[in-house]
Structure to design on (284 residues):
């Protein structure tokens, strides 16, 4: 949202009541802990949200749409409360660990064959889940045919998931993707954009999911969960709650990746620290 960087006049700033309404909605429906000292940033975002709702100002959209928000308004609001900043190969160490350590350990756990299930819980515009599928293909491509693989990619925002499903990126967006993956798993189009190859696209299923829901709707556990750079939005109590549910979605001995600057402190009985941003669920 580059327009979010435009200047905000003092007269446009959310007043204390409007700021409180935004904070309350963000906390109640999304678990986001928005600091009061981010008033200018939140005004910018509410101004963009106002434009999407046909309102004239940030203050107007807050007072008319957020006091008793409808489901449709909340779905739209989710886009404007988070940055959705992502790119291929972000925190590259995690992709290296996935290929070199985690997938081999999971294969050892499962035995001779089975289904390797990976959940990307903050899919945004798709770069992360698609690269995770590329990693699975690299690691399991020569494995026996009885090795199945699947990536579930979820996000709170339908709008970013629409972009993700397209699987089409410009040259600048794919510049951070390692050369081998760009060559093997992306298709250059006539308009100089790049599309995710069908064999990678077919491994990824996109669904909307709010991490704040009481329970997650999974019938079977995952061996690997990625939920990176999301905990920064949550209060300490919500963070523990979400981490507990993420751990519950993992099979014993499964791996959880969070942002390298994030922590699962307080979850030691369930999640064992491996290295910054990587934890393993206790059990075998």
């Amino acid at each position: 949202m580059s327009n979010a960087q435009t200047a905000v006049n003092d007269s446009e700033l959310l007043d204390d009541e409007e700021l409180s309404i935004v904070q309350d909605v963000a906390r109640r429906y999304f678990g986001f802990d928005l600091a009061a000292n981010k008033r200018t940033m939140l005004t910018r975002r509410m101004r963009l949200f106002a434009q999407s709702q046909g309102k004239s100002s940030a203050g107007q959209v807050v007072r008319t749409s957020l006091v008793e928000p409808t489901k449709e308004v909340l779905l739209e609001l989710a886009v404007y409360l988070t940055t959705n900043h992502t790119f291929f190969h972000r925190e590259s160490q995690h992709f290296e660990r996935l290929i070199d350590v985690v997938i081999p350990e999971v294969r050892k756990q499962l035995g001779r064959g089975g289904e390797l299930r990976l959940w990307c819980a903050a899919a945004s515009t798709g770069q992360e889940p698609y690269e995770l599928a590329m990693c699975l293909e690299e690691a399991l491509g020569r494995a026996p045919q009885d090795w199945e693989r699947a990536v579930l990619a979820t996000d709170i925002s339908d709008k970013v998931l629409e972009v993700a499903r397209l699987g089409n990126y410009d040259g600048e967006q794919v510049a951070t993707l390692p050369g081998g993956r760009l060559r093997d798993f992306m298709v250059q189009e006539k308009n100089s954009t790049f599309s995710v190859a069908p064999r990678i696209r077919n491994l990824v299923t996109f669904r909307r999911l709010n991490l704040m829901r009481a329970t997650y709707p999974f019938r079977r556990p995952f061996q690997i969960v990625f939920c990176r750079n999301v905990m920064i939005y949550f209060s300490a109590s919500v963070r523990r709650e979400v981490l507990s549910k993420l751990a519950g979605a993992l099979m014993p001995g499964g791996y959880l990746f969070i942002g390298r600057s994030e922590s699962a402190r307080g979850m030691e009985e369930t999640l064992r620290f491996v290295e910054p941003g990587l934890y393993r669920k206790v059990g075998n």
User: Anything to note?
Assistant: The radius of gyration is 20 Å. The beta strands are 114-120, 147-155, 168-169, 186-188, 194-196, 204-208, 222-226, 250-257, 271-275, 278-281. The chain has eleven helices and ten strands.
